[in-house]
Amino acid sequence: MTRIFAATRRDVLAGGSAALAVGLGATLAPRAARADMTPHEKELYEAARKEGELTWYTTHSDDVTAQALGRKFEQLYPGIKCNVVRTTAQVAFQRVAQELKAGAMQVDVFSSTDIGHYVYLKDKKLLEKYVPESSTKVLDIYKGYDPDGYYFVTSAGLIGMSCNTAKVKLADAPTNWTGLIDAKWKDQIALGHPAFSGYVGTWVVTLRKLYGWDFFEKLAKNNPRVGRSINDTVTLLNSGESTIAGTAANNSTVESLRKGNPLAMIYPTDGTVLILAPSGIMKGVRHPNAARLHMEFLMSVDASKIWVEHFNESMRAEVTPSGGFKSAKDVKTIRPTVEEISKGIPEVIKQWREVFGV
């Protein structure tokens, strides 16, 4: 039986408020819009400030990065609180579905790592059409996934493998995906779960396309530990409970390495999986102008600076990755189509549970 590991995750409604007034400041008029705002941005800001807040459900990153983005938004737009709720993709989608069913929508902006969520929501007419001004300024690879303007790629990431170098010499670690099915890695592999993580779901769809489901049947024989979030694999490596992460996010691995943990990122020779993660505004939200302003922010230079500081991909050409880690432009990448993800993730979740028993 496959062993299950589920790291404790905070499901917080947080985000510090840059609108706090101190002393006599509470009686002052709201701060004027920044001089560098575009006319459209100023108009949105004035309207959003009257709403005062928005709620952002995000699965694009770990909680630390999500909170950093929330705080940056509040810094740029004083008077608007960004309530950040960070979970795994399928958990966030279930929350949205429950709110829709109850007729009590809390979310304003929904950011998932499963692009299939947006195909479904758009088909059901549950997304607001809004084309951010900033969407025209992102790198070309992130443009055009919904030409109708209901959702936009606002984050990207890489899935490779990683290893605990205190337990395994990097020279002995797998160099490609099929290396994971070698019997010598039995009881040593950490994986995320496609029923919780959009990153992992896309990885499973990609590897099924590349090698067929037979790859996963062989992988299951190595008795991997299966967590929920893709970030759980890094936790298992750091604790020494696993030596190889079969699904490793580039950003969380590199960030853990920078903290002094004995990890190494592996970019498979048969292709590192590129994840394109969208955002969209739910229809009928309580804070529509704040939501539109947040969509503008997610594809801005300021947001990309936060992404890069936390070892993620930049959306903008003006922001280049810092030295010391690889970006999508530096490695061979593979990715499925939107249609393959939308159709494939529900299929592979069912297949996964049958084969891995979790």
Give a verbal description of the structure:
It contains eleven helices and twelve strands. It has helices spanning 39-51, 63-76, 89-102, 116-123, 198-211, 214-220, 232-239, 250-258, 288-298, 301-309, 338-356; strands spanning 3-4, 53-58, 81-86, 109-111, 127-128, 152-164, 189-191, 225-226, 244-249, 263-266, 272-282, 333-334. The longest helix is centred in the last third of the chain and has 19 residues, at 338-356. The chain folds into two domains: 3-153 and 277-325, Periplasmic binding protein-like II (D-Maltodextrin-Binding Protein, domain 2, 3-Layer(aba) Sandwich), CATH 3.40.190.10; 157-274 and 330-356, Periplasmic binding protein-like II (D-Maltodextrin-Binding Protein, domain 2), CATH 3.40.190. It is globular and about 60 Å long. It has 358 residues and is an alpha/beta fold. Strands 1, 2, 3, 4, 5, 6, 7, 8, 9, 10, 11 and 12 form a twelve-stranded mixed beta sheet that branches. Strand 2 (53-58), helix 2 and strand 3 form a beta-alpha-beta unit.
